[in-house]
Design brief:
six-stranded parallel sheet, 2 domains, 11 helices, Aldehyde Oxidoreductase, domain 3, TIM Barrel, homohexamer
Chain lengths: 287, 287, 287, 287, 287, 287
């Protein structure tokens, strides 16, 4: 499980609180006396995988250090809906000020984890792993990627610095300069840090021999038919890793995995998130 | 159309670029010579409403001032899929460095605008407006709300400071202290700035007379049946605005609007966004 | 009492400490051994209303977590001069490093609270409230407005987003485009969020009927004579709130309030602050 | 004239714009079409010394680079009231969004400059200079001190790092440890950077011989009578600089200066600012 | 050549200018009239490799946009000492304010590039590359690593996220839990992103078979004798990359390279930098 | 000993952690279970002066509040190599994440302190003090200067605001305008704050009379021979302080000190740092 950088977590939490709370909470300020204490439970309304508990905890701590947030589960746990995933107790005014921001984090992250878990379940029994992409909500990448891991997906590149990925446009530009695919990969190998892997995107089987010859560590089979993908995986066997990309859905993912591809990347995990419905139910205030 | 605060826009763009680019782009740095110029077109693959053009422009400008980003449309324009919404020309290396971040903004914002437009279309001909909520992606509120406006939705409260919204938990806490709903609303009126409106959430019709008597400016009819909602709207007519909230879908929204309610708030507009599929096609590199 | 957003408070405190302390305190660093402990009392030299105690506490905590700042009063309490409003104990060096910044906050905020209290006292017995404006010290708005509340004034708009205020220049620009005042207000109603109120500035009684007809929630009577204001208030009775603005002084405010106006806004509360004279007297060091 | 550090200026301007504009300007966004151009004049309503023109220019540039702000005067120029000190032309919407923040800066800074100029005028013909203190509005020190210079005052220490100032509390603490004043000053000389001057606060004439013997560069005569001060100045002649401090008013400053003291520090210049009344009059919109 | 992230560059430049210039430049402010223009040349006093030209340019631009900084060379060019590497022309006051900070950047970066080039020259003719480490000046990593590239060294991991490096302490901790080296490497392969390489530090030849069996991509031969290293390289031939680390000096580096190792990492390149002596000679002011 | 501003310390620590850890630590995240506790010792491998202990402590606290960092020595203590200067105990994963950044700070600061101590030792028995310059690593000035003090050197100007230093280029520019050196110094005295000293750089003995006549507080003897310097010191005796600057080495510094100069400034202390070799040895993991 990735451990969140505390400075990045603070930046994200502060940005979220600032946009909601920087002018104060006129409702709570006007109505809720400081002496009222409360306790409340975070309760998902649906089945899924919970994520974001540490972030929610950080939100409450930032608003009021004396509020206690007590997780009952940890990120990655499966919930059925209706059970308490965390409790929060302390000043009612502080809880109300922080509630929406804490829920926004948990609902998005749990949505990502849950969708990831569905994809992972589909490929169960194969050796294929589900990986994310850089198609994350701007400013939220660290959390979006942590949520993928909570759903038992794996992270692809975090950013443009931790892996070479030679895409169609890189290739087209360099071919226009007279370079072949082998030469392109070798230039990358010669120029990029020795410590990063080199992945190459291919759109037809014809390109694979050159990619292998150039020494690609990973070949991305982009938008291929199942038959092509199976052939591509075969060509790469024992030579490099393979990644399937493009138009992956819950319906198609199993068939893709059965081609033997090593990784399937799914942009929708983070670019088209369905928030998990999670409520904050106040225990003490109900009569 | 809301005008984005340039400082907030810079903060959001910088956060997104930092998480993708702060270690450099090892692929482009290794492969693409500085002298290569290119031009490319942003082309949606589907029908929808475009949004985020100004943000994408700011992304390219931040990476390389000499890159020219030329919108062909403006935020809020309807696209059918296949047409060019913007062109970008300049250093190929700079375009490749900024591409993913620019697309992440446009795809999310266009997704929000498009879903909003679908809801707005459903209620066409009624006097009801579709409004957003505070259930936005953390750190992205200003852009999420701008995208709602691009889809011809309207913005509800931006944050906790620009309107009083008395919810069930506020009421429960104060009733436990012995206050009735009228007293609660009057306390809010006495304590909150004179310049903000007071909205009250009610869960049954029984609460409406007290809310009106207390002087609510807006009454939120929360999770009511269509019949209840119609009765609630009737009770509030000419006395205050009404807002429907809870479990609103494209299927149900028309029927809700036909109750005569003034606003329908839809959390899914921003918490469960389906990114619009937009591609960046390089014109010059294709052979 | 508004609850300060902890992130905004931290930003303001850090800015103030940075400009005073970022290069170190060469006097204290050179002279004061780390082992010396001290305790000192914050003592106003004059009558007034104290404010800024929480901010001063945050200043000391930021410089040295082990320093204890103990308020004896709370913001909004009246002081006569000579009594202790707070104690600070701990490392003498830390107290000396933080002293000036803590005093700068308390003196300005107590000055605002005291002047506000004077205006509030003048209108006692009427239903009129004293409100502030956006004429605050740049970067200090949250604290300036908290200090007004400490003096029992009320806050007007915090910023440009939490209320519509249509001023003379908006009106002139749109009249040049052929719009009348009713149309202008209706455009604002149609375009601005449903959750904010609409206030209109009028400079003569002639404009009031159109403003009422357009549906203004608040009418600002700008720079009117007492007689005009009384007539304006009468025209608006039971139709909308009224606000008096312009050239309000301690001498004139009672007469203005007696016109029955709902609010009187006083820019001087925050733009022309007379700092309260507050000293920090070291108890332990005196011989 | 001090040259503002561009990074500090940007921080201050951004803080001021963020607190006013971060949620957008709902009035202008709702009403003012983007195509309307306008020009307006900054016109002081009273006599005084103008300051803050560069800051106002930076405010408009930050909101909209295409707005042109053209100063007619420079900081430090005397105005009578009624003349144009600067023009601003461009998008009406942008001008309205930036107006209040720009005015808040100019009004505070011109207020400081004007009060400083009054003190300077009082001591004209003497060799005494008027200096400021560290009693500035938190976060605004760079601008507060620039405004003092605009009024022909001089800056005292900017912060705790650019000069040693041994005050009563430092002395009391070290005397409790058994050190005499000479020893204290010598310790400071030995410990502090060689490049900074050492100033010592004395409260009676008795302390001056020891301060001189210790090698003080400047002696602050704190809260002394005119007679004492004259004697103190005499004791220090040709040995060190002298500074008068405490309860300086426009009424008393001349008499103090005539004691021959080198500097008179006036906290009120920055802690109790009376904002200059400056208006922004739109030329084009008036009919 | 790595392309500096503009946001990271701005952060570093702003930090450096803030610590030098935030209180103003009292010398230049006091003495240099705004109208004086000057031009000056950056001239190294010694042989070496120049680096930091873009950073120096950014420094001047941040202080005064109207100053023109014109490089005559580019980063990575060899200089003999005495030639002009860049010219700066514009306001003398602005040049003086920015001079020290610009030189601090260029002198450190050129020192790094020059030392790197010396190491690279020593291994010329072998296939071994010289790489840097994470032992950089805190906050300066992006620039320190860019300077290594200017000297024709190569970058190792930028940070803890872009490569797995299993060190002695990781191994010891897991061996204490009962895991062997193969198992440790396989766990890393299973848990870490597929896109990163796995490097393992070994301290004796005995560990190499297990490291190879576990599937290490790179084996770091730590503090080995030349003979051991030669044997280690032989064991790894065609199986994985090898890196020599520990006590590398200009005297020993050639012998190490001749073992056939793929990379030699040199911490001193960035942790013990000898600044290049570069002067800024004013052309116009000399008489 | 200078006391580090906590806000500046936080900025520097955060910048260093962000560049190393913002994407997570893929090695530790993949391998090290959260339950493993460890303790480790910071042990210098060589003789020198230790510095940076408080900074290292702040690094661990920022990564994980539960990690305990216990210094055994304080900054400025002499170490022989092999002894423990500090212990760290707690989560192994957290210690591994923070280790490199903590060491980078300690190694640089201890390197500065050690080199400073060597210079100070060379001049022992004279009255000359060793001072630093503004030639610090960009962004690290506060720590570089604290390390000089740990080595018993003294700080020269922290930045451009806390002392006037009139250099050759200032003089040349103003002489071109017709001013003599006396006039230049007097202009500085008249314009700069009274609280700062004025230092003048002279390159030949001829300039000293004018500098003294102008009233310089300090005269910098730049790049002079020992004989010239001795004569210069003589000319300045009892009139002003003197500073030697330029080409100072461990070999030459004693001879320079024996001229009687008050200060010798050494740029190499901070611009050409040799990092102290310090290791972090894990006690618990060794078997």
């Amino acid at each position: 499980m990735p451990n969140l950088d505390p400075i990045e977590l603070e930046r994200i939490v502060d940005a979220a609180l600032t946009e909601d709370l920087s002018g104060g909470d006129v409702t709570t300020d006007s109505l809720i006396p400081a002496h009222i204490e409360a306790s409340a439970s975070f309760i998902p309304r649906t089945h899924g995988v919970i994520a974001g508990l540490d972030v929610a905890k950080a939100v409450f701590a930032r608003v009021d250090k004396s509020v206690r947030f007590t997780p009952r589960l940890i990120d990655g746990d499966v919930v059925e809906g209706g059970e308490t995933v965390a409790m929060v107790t302390g000043s009612l005014a502080s809880i109300l000020r922080a509630e929406r921001v804490a829920l926004n984090f948990m609902q998005r992250m749990s949505g990502i984890a849950s969708m990831t878990a569905e994809f992972v379940a589909e490929v169960e029994g194969t050796d294929t792993v589900i990986v994310d992409t850089r198609k994350t909500a701007p400013g939220m990448r660290a959390l979006d990627k942590a949520a993928v891991v909570a759903g038992r997906g794996r992270n692809h590149r975090r950013n443009l610095s931790d892996g070479v990925l030679i895409k169609d446009n890189h290739i087209a530009a360099l071919q226009a300069e007279g370079l072949g695919l082998q030469q392109i990969i070798r230039r990358a190998r010669a120029q990029a840090p020795h410590t990063v892997k080199i992945e190459v995107e291919v759109e037809s089987l014809d390109e694979i021999p050159a990619a292998l010859d150039g020494g690609a560590d990973i070949i991305m089979l982009d938008n291929m038919s199942i038959a092509e993908m199976r052939a591509g995986v075969e060509m790469c066997r024992d030579k490099c890793l393979t990644e399937a990309s493009g138009n992956v859905s819950l319906e198609s993912v199993r068939e893709i995995a059965e081609t033997g591809v090593d990784m399937i990347s799914v942009g929708a995990l983070t670019h088209s998130v369905i928030a998990m419905d999670i409520g904050l139910d106040f225990d003490e205030l109900e009569q």
